[in-house]
Specification:
With 146 residues, this protein is mainly α. Helix content is 51%, strand content 0%. The protein has two domains: 13-63, no CATH class; 65-146, no CATH class. The chain is globular and about 50 Å long. The structure holds zinc ion.
């Protein structure tokens, strides 16, 4: 297959952006095909049809990095956090209720704002939307790549 011209160094398929998909709350196979798989194949087709464009403009839906950084980027997007360990890990552990982030503590996103005035409301909503198994798997995958 042509798409194998762009191998992932870890041997994982990019279409497996499963964490973001699971984090949306709609786990239907129809949605996976309509959004994730469609965007992956259309994006690859568009990339191959437009070699004249600058690299970043060749991906119509943007591009995630491969491997661990790509996972951090996906989790960061899901949590509305920067794609860094310093931001994503505390947020994931907060969702699991394994970490307490006080309302007046600095937000883990690095904004220098108090948590209650920054990402607390967003993470509360995320806590209702994303199941614990998905969060635990995300942490396990990050550790796998460490
Ligand atoms: Zn924040």
């Amino acid at each position: 297959m042509k798409m194998l011209a762009y191998p992932n160094t870890e041997g994982l398929c990019c279409v497996g952006v499963w964490t973001e998909w699971l984090g949306t709350g709609d786990r239907s196979f129809e949605r996976y095909l309509r959004d994730t798989v469609h965007d992956f194949f259309f994006g690859q087709w568009f990339y191959e049809q437009n070699p004249q464009l600058p690299e970043r403009e060749r991906w119509p839906f943007g591009e995630r990095s491969h491997g661990r950084l790509g996972l951090l980027e996906g989790l960061g997007a899901m949590l509305d956090m920067p794609a860094t360990d310093a931001a994503v890990y505390p947020a994931l552990h907060y969702l699991l209720e394994e970490a307490v982030i006080g309302p007046n503590a600095l937000c883990p996103c690095g904004s220098q704002r108090r948590f209650k005035r920054c990402h607390r409301a967003h993470l509360w909503r995320a806590r209702k939307q994303i199941d614990l198994v998905t969060i635990r798997e995300a942490i396990d995958h990050l550790r796998l790549y460490t």
